[in-house]
Amino acid sequence: MTDARYTLSTCAAAIAAVICTPAFAQTAGTTDPVEQEEIRSASNIVVISAIGFRDRSEEAEPVLVYDEQFFQRFEPLTAGDALRRVPSVTFLSDVLESDGARLRGLDPGYTQILINGERVPGSQADRSFFLDRVPAELIERVEIVRSSSARRTGDAVAGTINIELRDGLSLDGGYIRGGGLLFDDGEVKPSAGFYYGGEAGPGRILIGANVQGRYNPKIKSSFRFSDSPENNADFFADDFDNREDQTDTRDGTDYAFNGSYVIDSGGTFFEIAGNFVRTERTESERSFEYNDPTAINGPVRTANPGNLLTDNINVNDITQESWAISAKVEQEWAAGETGVRVSFSRFDDFQDEFEYEVDFDRGTPRFTGDLSLTDIADKEFVVEIDHQVPLADDLDLVFGGFAQNKDRLSDVRSVRNRFNLTAADREGYDQFSETPEQFATPFTLPAAAPGKIEEDRRDLFALIEGQAGAVTFEAGIRWENTDVRIGALETSFDYFLPSASAKIAVGEGRITISGARTVRRPRFDFISPVLLEAELGDNDLLGNPNLLPETAWGGDLGYEHRIGRTGVVGVNVFYRDVKNLVELANTGVEGSEGPGTFVFQPRNTGNGEVYGIEFDLSTSLAFLGLPDTGIFGNLGLIDSSITDIFGSRRFNDQSKYVYNMGFIHDFNAIGAAFGVTYRKQGAAFGRVIGEEVTTTYGADLEIFVEKSFGDNFTIRAVGSNLLDSTKDEVFNKFTTVQDQIDRSFDEYELESEQAGPVFQLIARYAF
Fold first, then answer.
1. H or E element, residue 477
2. CA distances from 732 to 105, 338, 690 (A)
3. 337-380 pLDDT, tens per residue?
4. Phi-psi region of 158 (alpha: psi -120 to 50; beta: other; left: phi over 0)
5. Tens digits of per-residue pLDDT, 408-422?
6. Span of the secretion signal (predicted)?
7. d(Cα 543, Cα 155) in Å, to the nearest integer?
8. What angle is formed at CA 573 by the lines to CA 570 and CA 579, rounded to 5 degrees?
9. pLDDT of 640-657, one tens digit each?
């Protein structure tokens, strides 16, 4: 991004601020104040006086709102963990992890993730943001926006998840949090935080800091075969190739901070806010391959006398930092209400990975060493202006503009070193107690070859919103223009994205109906004009900088009904018709692995459909005479249809269903409570060139028990993953496309991953 573009955007923000400044002086105190948020005392956050339920939004859009009270008692570590309790959110993560949220089961790139209503950059090639980077303790509420609106960017084919962090109007007083987590292998990790909100000069301030130990010990086992059961019923006996036993441990610490300063006076609202998250993590894998389904062998000497095939160690040191700062002004004046927001955000991802392997399955054992460095810097500068004008009673016009300059710089380097091992090297080597690092020779990484992608977005939008009798409505249109530069290559595209939503009150219930056009921009690795050898099985992948975004028309139709004072039950059906789908096509050029392999390139081709039905329930049992018991549950039945070069399938890795249910009971007389939640998601199938994978998960059970002491102190114990959940995968692997069509397997693999329970003991004290 050039300095000129930064200057242009900065000037736009400055001009807008100058325009609004005279209005501040003229109208302060003469109009109704900007609607204020409810400020909760710290003691009410520490000692929860009532069970939290799903909230009903009064806006026209179909929005589900869950505040911290709904999540807190189960002590989720991250925003991803919290979202495991809301409708139709699935994950394709390892056991004990919740990173890329898959709303309606679709790839994370189809879901728009917002922090405080703003898009955030991340390291993922599909533009998604991993939610395990946001500590749950910083969250004030989570909003699930099922359909799109002209007031937000249209990158929301599946929907939008907006995470609102605490601000200066959300906390009065302070509290400290401390405790620890105990893992199945005896490891203990600390958890601590400090949060304070109060008056500061003419406004209010909030500061929060959190340190969280992260740890995930898993055990994996794999069985590989030369054919599959679809070709041979006795494949386990006839086609067995090898077995792999692996330990996989993620060990690290997250550091997080957020702050906010708010002035809310008369018709003027001003906020400056920032947040910062740093992750330091080491991912360590150690695996052994054997040529027997059960047996292992002892120390390796001058030859390989037993069953050991390979000994592999993989260690990845990861340091990630993300931070954002924003300033927002809202001003009511004679011509309406004007809002200006300026923000800058950045994500840095540095990974230093090595993999060493000793291969004994050959005449002379060989050492292989791979080193790789990944350095990604993704930054965004945003200016947004909107203005609201009353057209009549209960009818407003809102219009504005959005400018975003995005730079993504990627530097990925790798090198491989191979040499045969002598008898002296092998003498005394014990694969169970030593690592093959002793065999490494110096590596020289190639010179940096960074890739730079620049995107400049310029959007305009307008909408009308209001209320007519029992109907609350919104209808608008957004024009999005994007210029993309990849080195010397330039391309641009623009789209008109209409949207409309309405809520119709019917007694104690209401009907919601929404429709919108949305987009999904291409993956970064798909538009980068780089040839990746053997990326798709033995086939190569060549990027295509001329890819256009996928577009979708979609609709939601729902009904929700109030139960008592706080409860709600709802049902929603949805449909998405996706056009310009990005799929891989054969260029006809021979691949780097020789005859029978090809170079594949992503292209815009074909269409797809996504549809399903969602149920949710959140209510107390007061109507049954149990006012201190709350129940919650939701179920998403999701499906889709897509056609690739092999035929029809669902969208890749979309689970067929996901549900969770639970209850909380308060013992008010003794200041105690306990609760249970149970979650299960269905199988998912994914198919790309060279590989097919079916993934299934075991169920997850969580239980908490808490005790409050007075009005300021609470201790809570939580047990997670109490069913020792597993992730099981079946891989079909093929060398060429024709082999995949003919079902001629290169390898068939069964892999299972398991982790044990996690126990937390957390205390909070308000002051």
1. strand 471-486
2. 22, 56, 8
3. 999 999 999 999 999 999 988 888 887 888 888 888 999 999 99
4. alpha
5. 998 888 888 888 877
6. 1-25
7. 22
8. 150
9. 999 888 889 999 999 999
**477 or 36: whose pLDDT is higher?**
477
Longest alpha-carbon distance in the chain: 90
Cα distances (Å, whole numbers) of residue 224 to 215, 455, 535, 685: 29, 44, 20, 19
CB-neighbour burial class of residue 178 (10 A; exposed 0-12, middle 13-18, buried 19+):
middle
CA distance 410 to 396: 44
E strand or H helix at 287: strand 268-290
Residue that the structure tokens 């002004």 belong to: 329
Average pLDDT over residues 318-346: 94
* Cα dist from 763 to 172, 179, 609, 708, whole Å: 19, 6, 47, 10
Residues 580, 603 contacting (CB under 8 angstroms): no
pLDDT range class, residue 439, cuts 50, 70, 90? low
Question: 152-202: per-residue pLDDT in tens?
Answer: 999 999 999 999 998 888 889 999 999 999 999 999 999 999 999 999 999
Residue with tokens 């068939």: 748
Integer angstrom CA distances of residue 118 from 287, 331, 380: 42, 20, 11
Burial of 606 (0-12, 13-18, 19+ CB in 10 A): middle
Q: What is the DSSP string of 440-475?
A: -----PPPP--EEEEEEEEEEEEEEEEEETTEEEEE
SS (H, E, C) 55-124: EECCCCCCEEEEEHHHHHHHCCCEHHHHHCCCCCEECCCCCCCCCCCEECCCCHHHEEEEECCEECCCCC
pLDDT tens-digit series, residues 726-741: 999 999 998 888 899 9
Residue from 165, 172, 169, 155 nearest 203 by CA = 169
Phi–psi pair at 191, nearest 5 degrees: -145, 130
Q: What mean pLDDT is reported for the chain?
A: 87
726: exposed, middle or buried (Cβ count in 10 Å: 0-12, 13-18, 19+): middle
pLDDT at 525: 80
Is 325 in a helix, a strand, or coil?
strand
Q: How many Cβ atoms are within 10 Å of 562's Cβ, its own excluded? A: 15
Q: Residue 377: its pLDDT value, please?
A: 93
Quick one: pLDDT band at residue 12, thresholds 50, 70, 90?
A: very low
Nearest to 684 by CA among 95, 98, 93: 93
Distance of CA 407 to the CA centre of its chain: 21
Place of tokens 């016009």: 397
- What is the distance between the alpha carbons of residues 39 and 42, in angstroms, rounded to a whole number? 9
CATH no. for 3-248+267-295+309-449+456-766:
2.40.170.20
| Average pLDDT value for residue range 231-257 | 90
Task: Domain ranges for the chain, please list them.
Answer: 3-248+267-295+309-449+456-766
Judged on CB neighbours under 10 Å (0-12, 13-18, 19+), 92 is buried
Q: How confident is the model at residue 434 (pLDDT cuts 50, 70, 90)?
A: low
Q: Which residues of 713-724 are buried (b: 16+ CB within 10 A; e: fewer)?
A: bbebbbbbbbee
CA distance 161 to 145: 6
Torsion sign (Cα): 318, 223, 107, 60: negative
Contact 575, 611 (CB under 8 A): yes
CA distance 557 to 553: 14
What is the rounded CA–CA span in Å between residue 227 and residue 238? 9
The DSSP code sequence of 549-592 is: PEEEEEEEEEEEEEETTTEEEEEEEEEEEEES-EEEEEEEEEPT
Minimal CA–CA distance to 159: which of 92, 90, 81, 98?
90
